[in-house]
């Protein structure tokens, strides 16, 4: 994500290799995220290497100074001071740059995931759900950001260890080979634990997805849990508790495997120290200055070796998280980009909207079978009020989502003014609709309607507050700078605020999915007898999903669905109805 208008699109999950194979998807994503900060990243890595070199020169200078007898060498002291200053400066530069890279990468990663979800097809968003995405945006994004705290230590400690091995080779090849042998033998044992640890980290990620799902249920199901103590106990102690324990146990196993691996390598290094110190054939006891040099190098190398190994778990956790992010993003399917819609398209007039043999299938949870809506053949025109009625599960909301372009028809065509609405046109087509679905979400501001930087926002606030007052909500909420003062309202009250938003959008098509279901009889009457006729009088096409049969006569047409098919189409007496609100412009 190199700029605001650029994006890295993850490949489909079917094309992604397993995370423990080569890590190529993870590398692609991290490279894409770092592209914008490649200059800072290069400087930080260079500073890491310089820090490692300065640290090795420090120990070499100190070893040489300790091996000398008599008066201290001033040139060695000066070199030691210079190396110390370089080590200090490079460590500070490294720490600052990698801290910035860590937070920048986390922000870019979250933006990447959020944009990917926002641009995905609605069916994919509904199928995958929020839990895996929340896990990715929180724990996995944090793991990736921690990579940039571990990376400088990996580079610096690695530079120091290799530098010390080089210095040992300069002092004594047998001693250096012995050290390398100890590290290699230890690495085999560490690698075996590393494979188990990665498998446990991947299992922890899967368990965490379940955990986030249960945490969501803790809030959405709060009423049901409060009303049933046994259900609450079994949920919290059983399902939720088990998910918490699974995440904990998998991570325990992962980091315990790393702890054993680090201990094994450090133990072998102690063995190496003992062999080097007490095996005369290696020539360590040739003279005291050489022996002191070995000891200084050994002790100096032990700390960075331990630090290097202790940062490997962070590296692997970040790699697993990157692969999980790729997998979750891949589940949204290959992203098909289309030209951005013209902002004026949402208000452009139209003559006819036609659905010809349109079908859409989905898995019906209640009947546990595939359910098909259609084939549907309908035509809509401006200034029309249409009710869509039918029993629960008859396909009303699904038909509404197909009609509004949220779902793509599997067969058939949608035509606007005789022009087919294909994939390339669907984004612009959707902009013609304003919808308040039964499971609506009310944002805390008039997003896309009021620009907070616009000088005319005070006028928009005044218009919005007038609508709020007409819906008898002015004692509860106000619109200030394009934002609602509160959303702590009942469902019915929030639906009335959603209606305010819909009116302000002023688009050609209006869809209301069971809007009146949560309203008092007084507001039901206002909605059906005043607001809907007013929208129709303004030339809007209004579609209402409803069970309120006492108001069906107000519609121009009533479409009845059964089992996904339109079984009847009747005409109401709307043409003979004239609401006083229309003449008075109650909501205009």
Automatic annotation (TrEMBL):
It comes from the Bacteria. Residues 353-588 form the ABC transporter domain. It is found in: Cell membrane. SUPFAM superfamilies: ABC transporter transmembrane region, P-loop containing nucleoside triphosphate hydrolases. Residues 1-23 are annotated as: Disordered. Signal peptide: none annotated. GO terms for biological process: peptide transport. Coiled coil: none annotated. Residues 39-317 form the ABC transmembrane type-1 domain. Residues 10-23 have a biased composition (Low complexity). Gene3D superfamilies: ABC transporter type 1, transmembrane domain (1.20.1560.10), P-loop containing nucleotide triphosphate hydrolases (3.40.50.300). InterPro entries: AAA+_ATPase, ABC1_TM_dom, ABC1_TM_sf, ABC_transporter-like_ATP-bd, Cyc_pep_transpt_SyrD/YojI, P-loop_NTPase, Type_1_exporter. It is a multi-pass membrane protein. GO terms for cellular component: plasma membrane. Keywords: ATP-binding, Cell inner membrane, Cell membrane, Membrane, Nucleotide-binding, Transmembrane, Transmembrane helix. This is Cyclic peptide transporter. It comes from Paraburkholderia phytofirmans (strain DSM 17436 / LMG 22146 / PsJN) (Burkholderia phytofirmans).
